[in-house]
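As a next step, the fold was encoded as C-alpha cells, giving this record:
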Amino acid sequence: MSWEYKVGDFLVLRKKHPCGSFRWQVLRVGSDIRLLCTACSRMVTLPRQDLERRIRAVEKNDPTP
C-alpha cells in the first residue's frame, strides 16, 4: 500500500519507540524519510521502502480552519 504523507504530517507506526511513543512527525521527504519522535524528540532517518512497511496510519497536519 502506498501512503501519502508530506512534511509536517504525523505517522503512527506499528512498533513503538523505546520511549513508548507510536507517533512520529515527518521532517524531510525524499528517498530517505526523516522522522521526529513526538515524545522524546529523537530524530531517525529511514529508507522509504522500510517506512512504507512500518506505517499504521497517517494523520494529516492540515492548517486550514
User: Anything to note?
Assistant: The domain at 10-59 is CATH 2.30.30 (SH3 type barrels.). Strands lie at 10-13, 23-28, 32-37, 43-47, 55-59.
